[in-house]
Automatic annotation (TrEMBL):
The keyword Acetylation does not apply. 3'-phosphoadenylyl sulfate binds at residues 99-103, 182, 190, 292, 308-312. One of its GO terms (cellular component) is Golgi membrane. InterPro entries: NST/OST, P-loop_NTPase, Sulfotransferase_dom. Belongs to the sulfotransferase 1 family. Its EC number is 2.8.2.-. Disulfide bonds join 293-303. It catalyses: alpha-D-glucosaminyl-[heparan sulfate](n) + 3'-phosphoadenylyl sulfate = 3-sulfo-alpha-D-glucosaminyl-[heparan sulfate](n) + adenosine 3',5'-bisphosphate + H(+). The gene is Hs3st5. This is Sulfotransferase. It holds the Pfam family Sulfotransfer_1. The chain crosses the membrane at residues 12-29.
Amino acid sequence: MLFKQQALLRQKLFVLGSLAIGSLLYLVARVGSLDRLQPLCPIDGRFGPHSQDEIPMRALQFKRGLLHEFRKGNATKEQIRLHNLVQQLPKAIIIGVRKGGTRALLEMLNLHPAVVKASQEIHFFDNDENYAKGIEWYRKKMPFSYPHQITIEKSPAYFITEEVPERIYKMNSSIKLLIIVREPTTRAISDYTQVLEGKERKNKTYYKFEKLAIDPNTCEVNTKYKAVRTSIYTKHLERWLKYFPIEQFHIVDGDRLITEPLPELQLVEKFLNLPPRISQYNLYFNATRGFYCLRFNIVFNKCLAGSKGRIHPEVDTSVITKLRKFFHPFNQKFYQITGRTFNWP
Ligand code: A3P
């Protein structure tokens, strides 16, 4: 009898304990949505450039609140009005480079309470049809944000598209431009891998990287191959420099962002005049993925999609050597122009 009572008591305690833990987790998850109960934005007006040190840490969770609900379609128009939410043109754009780590950079910057990302690549400036729709169309593509926050978008095609610098200049001549680069040969192979995967998905055959990257007639590097051309960073940058001074660019080391993201992100925070808010807590290494993943708080964390971090096909070492030799002088010029040196071979 006594034993039965003890078992019953243990069972009750277990249920109560589970309920308590469950409620605690639920509460933590809801912290980000507390703003929905308040008529005024609690961090509004405290986050301008004059009071940068006053950003409450809660802002990180806050961002997962109303803005998140709005994106899911759960926030009402009234809440948006009360919270003063607006769709702002970007103050900074990640203009490239394709396969440099543009998605990782955008997602990681979005950890910052003062940054709001445009989730999709908008392709406004590189696509004539979109560009013809006008700047209001572009603005309407932007996420809702608080006036003190900055919107960032990324469209890697901007970096290599001829018309883009002038078009961005016309929108905002003092915009900040972020370029994330990787060792050029690795980037070219990553670029090839993405296209290859697309072909395989459609059951199509494709050439080997070696065949595309090296001209079979001359045995020299095939500069007509897009993956090669995109990696000649200096050529593209020079076009941009006709419109923007170098001070308006910040170069992110995409190889370092993979292995050691925090210092790279801290440099970007500085460039964007944002107070340092992204910390090691927000980034954790996921051994299964082999990459750093993002932690918003103890409940919300995420890794990038599986399409980021593909296994590259093996490439003939002589082709790699040839490509590296080819990129070398362009890299030197790139270091010289940007003032940032990389240990690329
Ligand atoms: P690979 O697929 O070649 O490894 P982009 O977003 O510009 O297309 O860049 C994709 C690259 O981002 C990937 O190239 C990957 O190496 C890199 N990357 C950087 N940080 C990453 C992260 N935390 N998770 C996944 N991929 C990351």
